[in-house]
Amino acid sequence: MALAMSTERQSRQSDDYLVVRDMSKEFQSNGARSVALQDINLTIKRGEFVTLIGHSGCGKSTLLNIMAGLYQQTDGSVALEGKPIVAPGPDRGVVFQHYSLLPWLSVRNNVFEAVDAVHKDKSRQEKYTLVDDFLKRVGLHEHRDKKPSQISGGMKQRVAIARAFANHPKVMLLDEPFGALDALTKGSLHEELIQMWSNDSQTETVVMVTHDIDEAIYLSDRIVVLTNGPAATIGEIIDVPIPRPRDKRAILHTPEWADIKERLLYLLTVEYAHAA
Amino acid sequence: MMEATQDMAIASPPRDSVQVRTSKRVSPVWIKAKAMLTSFALAMGGLALMLGVWQYIAHTHEDFPGPAATLPVLWDMLRHPFYDNGPNDKGVGIQVWMSLGRVFRGWMLGSLIAIPIGLAMGSNRAIMGVLNPVVQFMRPVSPLAWYPIGLAILKNSETAVVFAITVTSLWPTLINTMFGVSSLPEDYRNVARVYRFSRWKYITKVLIPYSLPHIFTGLKLSMGIAWVVIVAGEMLAGGTGIGYFVWDSWNAFSLEKVISAIIIIGAIGFMLDRALDWMVKRVSYSA
């Protein structure tokens, strides 16, 4: 079964899907220019799960926001299926670091307003069916009438994930989605994310920002390690050749796990040690 | 005081843990009742202090009525609030009713002007740049200075009072709306961008719900100003209203009635404030 799934995944992968070429990003503040990212070259294949890892302030969220179309790069190009990314679009879903649920709307309406804005051709009834379907998948259907302030952090992020996946984006962009959660909640959300990506949704490609090494290895096909900012760039790209579906406890004993973890630890603590 | 009561209620430990640990269980109802009694006693203390100061002034100033002389007059006024003996002798209830009508008209009109302008100023830098100096210039002008302008334009003393209320009370609503809109967190704006909310959806589902507590706080402050301005306005305009009643009583050498009117004005102002405070709480959300 593991084999069947991984070949299916492989067949969905094709080259040159999400392409970042010679990209740089500068910020201006009070007349002073600062280079956040430079010489970024990255090609993400269709169907891939890629994580961006690096120390805080290395510009990994900036790179993700440029892919989302929320920021514009200063130089170079960013394109999805050959089309340049200039603004946010329905082909890309985003899960934000701070959940970003609208606190005055119920759980259900938080998902509904996004679905309503994106699926313009569907009837109201169809939209609510879609919303309830995705809330069931993340186990929040019975909490649908609660406000975000009445549910836990893990539940909030589940709502945000349901909201993002319900819009059937081709690419899902996640900005440190589990950074604020405890280890156990994090673990079950990993499973749900993988489930969404591999089976339950029309989303094929995932790009996720993280600073958690174990999370990166467990989830990714490839791990992109960024050097320290300012003027950060891609230091190394590490393949994770562990077959899917992955068992969280079993993979701990594989030689791949140990090798990749050692390499990542070396890169992040020695090679690009944070100037603290 | 409201907050204090709620804190006390929250601070009471959950039932189970108390039962296990202690033999004497303190009921949360009793804790809440105790907090309410405390705040009531404190409020009564403040009231007694005010009466004391009033009594002292009356004692040291000749011809200034103290509580003993005033309260029967106030009681008399409140017993027959709606009598009407022609244009120069009406019950205090009628006067207050007239004043409230003007206050609401002026306040509503001011809000209808202030909220859209505040929304526009808060969401657009150019509009802010053009209108902010105008706002800062007009805001500190005294309500009484607007009255002749209103009279000249509208040729009617009653609508001139409403005009003065409108022009002086709209600023807190305008400024609070503007501030609310311009403080919208980038996270919420990004949600609207990522899901490509239409302009209408952005305004009705993000911008307005986010700013509503700010807007209502502005409305509450504006109402406070409107209620202050009405007394001055009606003193100038004459005819009817609680402001006119104050001036008329002064001319009739009845300080008891003047003081009674002040007590009524204060009580109604307090109730208006509480009512709008309740509305602010209704539109507030916890993030």
Can you walk through the features of this model?
The complex is a heterodimer of chains A (276) and B (287). In chain A, the strands form two sheets. Chain A has a six-stranded mixed β-sheet with strand order 6-7-8-3-9-10, sandwiched between helices. Chain A is α/β, with parallel strands linked by helices. Chain A has helices at 2-12, 60-68, 107-118, 124-137, 153-165, 183-200, 213-219, 255-271; strands at 18-29, 32-44, 49-53, 75-80, 83-84, 92-95, 171-175, 205-210, 222-226, 234-239. Chain B folds into two domains: 2-64, no CATH class; 92-283, MetI-like (MetI-like fold, Orthogonal Bundle). Chain B has helices spanning 2-11, 15-21, 28-60, 67-79, 92-123, 125-138, 143-154, 157-182, 186-194, 199-237, 242-251, 255-283. In chain B, helix 5 runs antiparallel to helix 6 (125-138), helix 5 (92-123) runs antiparallel to helix 10 (199-237) and helix 5 (92-123) packs across helix 11 (242-251). The longest helix of chain B has 39 residues, at 199-237. The A-B interface holds A 68, 70, 87-90, 92-94, 96, 98, 100, 102-105, 113-114, 116-118, 147-149, 167 and B 187-188, 190-191, 193-198, 201, 205-206, 209-210, 212, 285-287.
